[in-house]
């Protein structure tokens, strides 16, 4: 059975974790997974991105060779699950400085977008905070954006916002 067949076999957490273990063990390659995220027909990209989340949870460095493509993928039309899982994976990965500005801007735009899904906003908030860590100007900007959106947003946004604001104010 190939990776595509494995992804289509069953949409479950158990199957996702099993496929992630197979990738980590070398049964399937990360490159195969990445190709399905980028170029697969639905529902393959969203299912493959869930596996990406599981793989980077164990081996965040596996995304490093694909970082420029991953950042570019954020700017392309895709299923919300792909954005959500990609943001989670990027948060776990050491982003090179040359990509941080573009990712930070993307995250701020998601926080200011009233149509963005709460999970995408929450992961954008966490990723932006990671990028802003140790940079007072960015921390201040992020805090202002979060605060400006608190009263108009969901309980999930407010909860994550309070946690991130606490982290930003510690620094």
How would you describe what is shown here?
- Helix content is 75%, strand content 0%.
- The chain is built from ten helices and no strands.
- The longest helix has 16 residues.
- The mean pLDDT is 96.
- Helix 2 packs across helix 4 and helix 8 packs parallel to helix 10.
- By secondary structure, it is mainly alpha-helical.
- It folds into two domains: 87 residues, no CATH class; 75 residues, no CATH class.
Offer a quick outline of the entry:
75% of the residues lie in helices and 0% in strands. It has 2 domains: 1-67 and 75-94, no CATH class; 97-171, no CATH class. It is elongated.
The helix/strand order is HHHHHHHHHH
The share of residues in helices is over 70%
Per DSSP, the total helix count is 10
Task: Report the sheet-strand fraction.
Answer: under 5%
In total, how many domains does the architecture comprise? Answer: 2
**Which structural category do the helix and sheet elements fall into?**
mainly alpha
The main sheet comes to: none
Mean pLDDT: 96
**DSSP strand count:** 0
Q: Give the low-pLDDT segments.
A: none
Overall outline = elongated
- How far do the termini sit from each other? 50 Å
The Cα radius of gyration reads 17 Å
């Amino acid at each position: 059975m190939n990776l595509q067949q494995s992804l289509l076999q069953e949409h479950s957490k158990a199957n996702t974790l099993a496929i992630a273990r197979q990738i980590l063990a070398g049964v399937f390659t990360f490159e195969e997974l990445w190709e399905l995220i980028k170029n697969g027909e639905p529902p393959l990209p969203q299912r493959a991105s869930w596996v990406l989340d599981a793989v980077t949870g164990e081996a965040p460095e596996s995304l490093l060779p694909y970082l420029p493509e991953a950042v570019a993928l954020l700017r392309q039309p895709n299923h919300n699950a792909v954005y959500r899982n990609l943001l989670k994976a990027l948060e776990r990965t050491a982003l090179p400085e040359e990509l941080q500005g573009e990712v930070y801007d993307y995250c701020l735009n998601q926080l200011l977008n009233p149509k963005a899904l709460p999970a995408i906003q929450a992961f954008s908030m966490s990723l932006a905070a990671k990028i802003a860590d140790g940079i007072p100007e960015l921390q201040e900007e992020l805090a202002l954006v979060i605060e400006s959106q608190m009263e108009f947003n969901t309980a999930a946004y407010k909860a994550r916002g309070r946690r991130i604001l606490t982290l930003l104010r510690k620094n």
